[in-house]
Design brief:
About 15% of the residues lie in helices and about 40% in strands. It has helices at about 1-20, 25-40, 80, and strands spanning about 70-75, 90-100, 105-110, 125-140, 140-160, 160-165, 170-175, 195-200, 205-210, 215-220.
Length: about 220
């Protein structure tokens, strides 16, 4: 099974690279990727308890939390992310999910559109957006991670080749409401969660509940811009 799984992962990586992480995907390539995801899901080495320790309250060593680490997105079918490529001002660069229980931070780097028209030696610019969420366990599904949004941060990392430490970031703190605790809300299916479809030592595939879509990510050592 390991050999078959590795073969599927290699095929998946090639498709992800060929179609710009899904931003340039054709209907055929999306179907191909979703078929591979389905097959990998059936071979998932973490079929249960993939979310263990994600709330940071289990008492387990954080290094033993399966989801802990920095994950770089290499494919998505989520429209809320794919629509980022429609901006006439900036194009999405690297996209990460950094999990340090109980905090899961989504990071998106944006690159000015005009930069692609300039010579490669021209000083670059980059803006980073960070969305901080607090992760929780969902008791009816040991592979489900609940998410409550806490804060948004937007800041320039580099402007024309110069570090932008002097520019203050834009910060927006959101009301800290646990949606699953609200009256009338089913705590097991409350909005704001993802299910782990596949997880091993270097690849993570999740499916978000709303607005839906898959995310394929690989584990990386750092998420420096």
């Amino acid at each position: 099974m390991n050999a078959e799984r590795d073969e599927l992962k290699t095929k998946l990586l090639k498709l992800c690279a060929s179609y710009d992480r899904g931003f340039g995907a054709s209907p055929k390539s999306r179907k191909e990727v979703e078929e591979i995801i389905k097959q990998l899901g059936e071979m998932n080495p973490s079929p249960v308890d993939a979310a263990r320790g994600i709330d940071g309250e289990s008492g387990m060593d954080m290094e033993d939390v399966p989801l802990k680490g920095a994950w770089r997105m290499i494919w998505t079918t989520a429209l809320d992310v794919l629509n980022l490529a429609a901006s006439p001002v900036a194009s999405p660069g690297a996209i990460y999910q950094v999990i340090d229980p109980p905090i899961a931070t989504n990071i998106i780097d944006f690159i000015p559109r005009f930069q692609s028209l300039l010579p490669t030696g021209f000083p670059s610019s980059l803006v980073r957006a960070e969305v901080k969420t607090r992760a929780s366990l969902r008791r009816n599904n040991s592979n489900r991670v609940g998410l409550n949004f806490e804060a948004v941060k937007l800041y320039p990392v580099e402007v024309l080749g110069m570090k932008s430490d002097i520019v203050p970031p834009f910060n927006l703190n959101l009301p800290k409401i646990k949606i699953e605790d609200l009256p009338g809300v089913d705590p097991n299916n409350a909005p704001g969660f993802f299910d782990v479809v596949y997880l091993d030592g270097d690849m993570l595939i999740i499916k978000q509940n709303a607005p839906g879509g898959y995310f394929v990510s690989i584990k990386v050592d750092n998420y420096d811009p």
